[in-house]
Design brief:
Chain A is α/β, with parallel strands linked by helices. Chain A contains 9 helices and 22 strands. Classes of the chains: A alpha/beta, B mainly alpha. Bound molecules: flavin-adenine dinucleotide and iron/sulfur cluster (2 copies).
């Protein structure tokens, strides 16, 4: 995305300089594995090379979810997942004058921002009645919708693609939605989610459900074979967690866990408190813990927003303490939020100390009083900050409040 | 082992869509302003006052108008689209031409001012353009340094306004930029000129040794001593800055208090140099070169100052086989003029705006050592939120590989960090925050 928009070069996106691998005794090989013989502990590459292993970690990632409608194979229909997809979109952008994006999630919004940067008009089709409906609340989506539209994106809700139409020479021409609308475009990007990339392993002897099934040590049913990242499916996910969580952070934590195990320090996968983040054009989003898109008597929420500034804070809680945070346009400190959630801090205590969690740049305005005022208008309880909120008080909170769970 | 390249993936930068007609108009105004100063050089067709104000006015309208047309009405946020497509910012032809022009200007200014019209017996041409202003402020004709000061200050002010527009909605950036604009205008420009008018030594009170390498030169010390009490106060102030003010501020806030809030070199880099910040090389090898160049310059300035003071105190010109006058002349030529001026500013469009600050500035070296070992300043990494996207490393003007630390959940405590805060702003996941604190919140051992 940032390469496409001209913010970075491709090489700037690599997490390590090219020399890193050799220096650390890691041999990087480009080859497609087509088959695995687990008995012989051997992998077969497309190039004809065979690779043997003592321990094998499968991390083949995911592939884009398909719509399963007619016309999906037409030229000009693409997912947005791999470098090849990016190259394709890059090459297409030179000749195409319009794009349709299907899917109201985090990848869809990246595509919209990319096309916007090149002044390519976008029609963005979303199945639900608001943006990011699976993770954001209605009010939060209400902040995003105008923001996205202000960027000139033709955002259409409750629009499902039922057919993709092509020209005679096999190129995409338009899409048809369930409402009967036909939208013309010679580039259609499908971003409706991902699925584990495990098809090629179906008869290999690995136990596979949607993804490769792994236990709490990320071990598959076959000895000395692990699976991590987008392609893995946990047999027993922790409470409130999904069995497949295809995000960067879980992939990284799984990698670290397996690395320890392989280095003879057998370690269980413990992803801690769930967190995620994204950016919708200029609005940053972070979430920690369990935040449901809809609230009930069980999980309640305090919500404050400044819609002019496109900022909001949502704190979810139950009678036994806070469960999660969801913020737009504001940065929170992960460690502090994590601790509040882990130790079930009562919501009033969290509100009093909210400044401990702000992670915005120095001199930014604090929104603590505003959200405490919202709580007061909800419950009549007047809360006040008691402490100095400097760096050292954050330190004291993280270090010393360990023991005394409130 | 071969790695995919941009070319093999058809990821070449998109064609830059070009600039709007309003922007072309503003550039045309700037060109007219240059022509007016050029005409002045060719002979005097316009009255001197008029041509100066016309040129300055047009340049201001040109830069500010251009900036307004770029950022007006846009939502706050990061504005880096097409950075790697525009010829100016991806070392294209325009960048090379600009480098040549700035470098040539510096060479003329430092070594051949007469070609710009400077003359003891009455200025002509470009330098004479500034005579009316110089007469008005300090009652004498312009020197080449006065002209330089005017242009430098104008650049920081105008591009400062552009920066303020670009980073609207971010108070750290607003305050910091306001601060460098203020210090340049008042401390570097107005106060010294006024002091001169009052027949006092014209000292830039924020320009500290060793950046101000001539602070301990004999002529400077003599000048201060000859000026009586005001001179002695300035001498005391200069020493107080070195020994007390700077260490204390650096302890609490890191070197940023100077490098990106006060310093003139930093001020120009942050404002006029802002469009080029991604050009600083963040590879390991560049870091190696940095250490092999920066610290020798520091040693050079320390030895030179020691030699000069030795001569001042003992009256002996040579130490062992070295002549202290020769050493200081070499320092002034190599470091003071070529490195900090010609290369330091001229090479903005090729190597980013902090070439001097990163590879040369002995002041930054000292503050950096303190920052690394005796300072509360750090950039905190927000737990595990980093997605290794690389924006921070790309836009670090000091070529720090910020991501290297962030993706491991480590804080960034690096000698070279000038605390500009841009890495934290461009991060799309809210991972970085500049902070001052005596303990490390993020290391497991501290908690
Ligand atoms: C556009 C986009 C944006 C995203 N943004 C975010 C974000 O902001 N935050 C976030 O948390 N997550 C984000 N994600 C998700 C995140 O990128 C993935 O969760 C993460 O990359 C998964 O890592 P992985 O190692 O499991 O798989 P991948 O990174 O997909 O790596 C799989 C690798 O295996 C290789 N491979 C596959 N099959 C074979 C084979 N048979 N033989 C040899 N090699 C093979 C593939 O070529 C690939 O290199 C994004 C994903 C996309 C597509
Ligand atoms: S690390 Fe960040 S704050 Fe420091 S110089 Fe680089 S961009 Fe600026
Ligand atoms: S910009 Fe932020 S998310 Fe990207 S690599 Fe740097 S710290 Fe990580």
């Amino acid at each position: 995305m940032y390469v496409y928009m001209g913010h970075m070069r491709f090489k700037d996106t690599k997490p390590y300089e090219d020399g890193f691998w050799e220096k650390n005794n890691i041999r990087l090989v480009q080859d497609l594995i087509t088959d695995i013989a687990f008995e012989q502990k051997t992998l077969f590459g497309q190039s004809g090379t065979e690779y043997t292993y003592d321990q094998l970690v499968i991390a083949t990632g995911s592939s884009p979810q398909t719509l399963d409608v007619e016309g999906e194979n037409l030229e000009g229909v693409t997912g947005f997942h791999s470098l090849q997809d990016l190259s394709f979109i890059e090459a297409s952008s030179k000749s195409h004058t319009k794009a349709v994006i299907v899917g109201g999630g985090l990848i869809g919004i990246e595509l919209a921002e990319m096309f916007h940067s090149r002044n390519i008009p976008v029609t963005h089709l979303v199945r639900e009645n608001r943006y990011a409906a699976s993770s954001l609340s209605t009010e939060e989506s209400a902040i995003l919708n105008p923001h996205i539209k202000d960027h000139g994106i033709d955002l259409r809700f409750q629009s499902e693609v039922i057919k993709i139409n092509g020209t005679e020479d096999g190129k995409v021409k338009s899409v048809t939605t369930q409402k009967g609308e036909e939208i013309n475009s010679d580039l259609v990007c499908i971003a409706i989610g991902v699925k584990p990339n495990v098809r090629w392993l179906f008869d290999s002897g690995l136990e596979i459900n949607a993804g490769i099934l792994v236990d709490e040590y990320l071990q598959t049913n076959i000895p000395d074979v692990f699976a991590i990242g987008d392609c893995a499916e946990l047999r027993h996910p922790g409470p409130g967690r999904k069995s497949i969580e295809p995000v960067w952070y879980t992939g990284r934590m799984m990698g670290e866990t397996v690395a320890k195990t392989i280095c003879l320090q057998k370690t269980k996968y413990d992803p801690g408190i769930w967190f995620n983040s994204a950016k919708f054009f200029a609005i940053e989003y972070q979430c920690y813990g369990e935040v449901l898109p809809e609230h009930s008597a069980k999980q309640k929420a305090i919500f404050w927003q400044d819609s002019k500034q496109e900022k909001s804070i949502r704190i979810c809680y139950t009678d036994s303490g806070v469960t999660g945070f969801s913020v737009l346009g504001i940065r929170l400190r992960q460690r502090v939020c994590e601790k509040w959630i882990q130790l079930h801090y009562p919501v009033e205590k969290v509100l009093e100390d909210l400044e401990l969690a702000f992670f915005n740049p120095e001199f930014s305005v604090s929104y603590g009083d505003k959200i405490r005022a919202v709580y007061q208008s909800m419950t009549g309880v007047h809360l006040q900050t008691k402490r100095n909120r400097g760096y050292n008080s954050i330190y004291r909170f993280l270090k010393h409040e360990n023991a005394q769970t409130p | 082992m071969s790695y995919p390249t941009e070319e093999s993936l058809s990821l070449r930068p998109a064609a830059y869509p070009g600039i709007s007609s309003a922007q072309k108009l503003y550039i045309a105004l700037g060109v007219i302003a240059l022509l007016i100063s050029g005409l002045n050089m060719a002979g005097k067709f316009l009255p001197p006052d008029l041509s100066l104000w016309l040129a300055v006015g047009l340049v201001s309208i040109s830069v500010i108008g251009y900036a307004v047309s770029m950022y007006q009405g846009k939502q706050a946020g990061i504005k880096n689209n097409y950075v790697y497509s525009s010829s100016l910012t991806r070392r294209g032809t325009i960048a090379w031409v600009l480098t040549l022009v700035i470098t040539a200007f510096y060479v003329l200014l430092y070594f051949f001012p007469s070609l710009l019209g400077f003359s003891d017996s009455g200025n002509t041409g470009f330098i004479a353009l500034f005579d009316p202003l110089s007469q008005w402020i300090s009652l004498k004709p312009a020197s080449q340094w006065f002209v330089y000061g005017c242009l430098y200050t104008l650049a920081i002010l105008l591009f400062g306004v552009k920066f303020l527009l670009k980073y609207k909605g971010n108070r750290y950036q607003q305050l910091r930029t306001g601060s460098v604009m203020f210090f340049q205008l008042c401390f570097a420009f107005i106060i010294p000129e006024v002091l001169e008018r009052l027949n006092q030594p014209a000292m830039d009170l924020k320009n500290m040794w060793p950046l101000n390498y001539y602070f301990f030169f004999d002529w400077h010390l003599d000048q201060l001593r000859a000026a009586g009490n005001p001179g002695l106060i300035m001498l005391a102030w200069g020493i107080l800055m070195i020994l007390v003010i700077s260490p204390v501020l650096t302890y609490f806030y890191g070197k940023r208090w100077y490098c990106s809030w006060v310093c003139g070199c930093g001020g120009l880099a942050e404002t006029a140099g802002d469009p080029f910040r991604h050009l600083s090389d963040n590879s390991q090898s560049a870091w190696r070169i940095e250490r092999w160049v920066l610290y020798p310059v520091l040693i050079f300035v320390l030895l030179m100052t020691a030699a000069v003071l030795w001569t001042y105190i003992t009256g002996q010109e040579s130490i062992l086989f070295l002549n202290s006058y020769a050493i200081r002349e070499w320092y002034g030529f190599l470091i003071g003029a070529i490195f900090s001026g010609v290369i330091g500013v001229g090479f903005y469009p090729l190597f980013g705006p902090r070439v001097w600050c990163r590879f040369g500035c002995p002041m930054a070296a000292i503050l950096g050592i303190q920052q690394k070992y005796f300072s509360r300043f750090r950039i905190s990494t927000n737990g595990g939120q980093c997605i290794s996207c690389g924006n921070c490393s790309t836009y670090c003007e000091m070529g720090i590989d910020v991501r290297h630390y962030a993706q491991q959940g480590k804080n960034i405590v690096r000698a070279s960090c000038v605390g500009c805060g841009i890495c934290a702003d461009v991060c799309p996941r809210g991972v970085l925050k500049l902070e001052n604190g005596s303990v490390d919140l993020h290391s497991k051992s501290a908690l």
